[in-house]
């Protein structure tokens, strides 16, 4: 996602004007750059959450032992004894988790080094070029291991309390960083001038969180526009095809809504969600919101990172009072630039949803079918002898 925002930011700066019109204003560029900055911080946090996603044998094994005991016909006393005795497995499972996390950190170090030296690397690993990410990842891993070992001692007295205790050190370190980011967002809201806006990326999953999914890859990418008017705040959630909004909020209510939406990105750092396995991700509630606008859908299901980004720019156009013609001109210029400079887009895979060919997966298929038909057409119309 960081890479997509970087491409969009570079493209906006190099194609600010087209046909005598400013299609990427200062506000558009600041919105993209602000979203990229927040995304870097959020992905650093998500890498830490990933430790708990891929190294959770304790949650998996102990959860299944609990379920097996509930399904068995043991007396409550025998069930309690067996459950507590199973706590001897926790140090063994913790050692396996630790080894897995070390392998993951080695992989991130390799990708980060490659990116620092070459500027390129595997997709979804942009954040690994940040040395502070690796420090935080190491600290998170140490705290998770320490928490598991302390929790194993409490487990013999109370299994449920033992599991909660095991989460406390690592979760505490994580939320300390998240709260710092939220504090920075609140400061930005306080310092913002009236009639200004900034953008925060909102990612979320829905349903069971797979341990094999790459951080952010399996999540839906959307954007939240924060607008300040008369020292009050309006929030616009861009999630194609709908733009929802909540208006006239004080700073505390607006900040609480932002915090709630951001926290849904990290289900494995929510202690209540961790109490059951598999862990379930949830869609941000954004309750009591109203529909602000309806825009085109995102088309291909994997296009959300870019299509919702340009949906956010479209929403800024609506808030600024710019006409639809400007939005469509920006889409056309962007499409031409992408098809010229990026191989991926040269087969008419296009990130903006619309009804025309090349804008949706059906459109791409129809266009490809016509091209194939045109290629073979001459073979069926040979001149007669």
Key words describing this protein structure:
alpha+beta; two-stranded antiparallel ribbon; 9 strands; disordered C terminus; 385 residues
In a few lines, what is going on in this structure?
The chain has 385 residues and is of the alpha+beta class.
What does this protein structure show overall?
The chain has 385 residues and is an alpha+beta fold. It has two domains: 194 residues, no CATH class; 131 residues, no CATH class. The chain is built from twelve helices and nine strands. It has a five-stranded antiparallel β-sheet. It has a two-stranded antiparallel sheet with strand order 1-2. Strands 4-8 form a two-stranded antiparallel ribbon. β5 and β6 form a beta hairpin. α1 runs antiparallel to α2. 35% of the residues are buried.
Can you tell me the overall shape?
A: elongated
* Helix percent band: 55-70%
Q: How widely separated are the two ends?
A: 60 Å
Q: Widest sheet: strand order? A: 3-5-6-7-9
Quaternary structure state of the chains depicted: single chain
- Give the DSSP E fraction (strand runs of 2 or more residues): 5-15%
Q: Any idea how many domains?
A: 2
Quick one: biggest sheet? 5 strands, antiparallel
Number of helices: 12
Order of helices and strands: HEEHHHHHHEEEEEHHEEHHH
Strand-pairing-aware structural class: alpha+beta
Average pLDDT for all residues: 84
Low-pLDDT ranges: 348-365, 379-385
Q: What integer value in Å does the Rg equal?
A: 25 Å
Tally the beta strands: 9
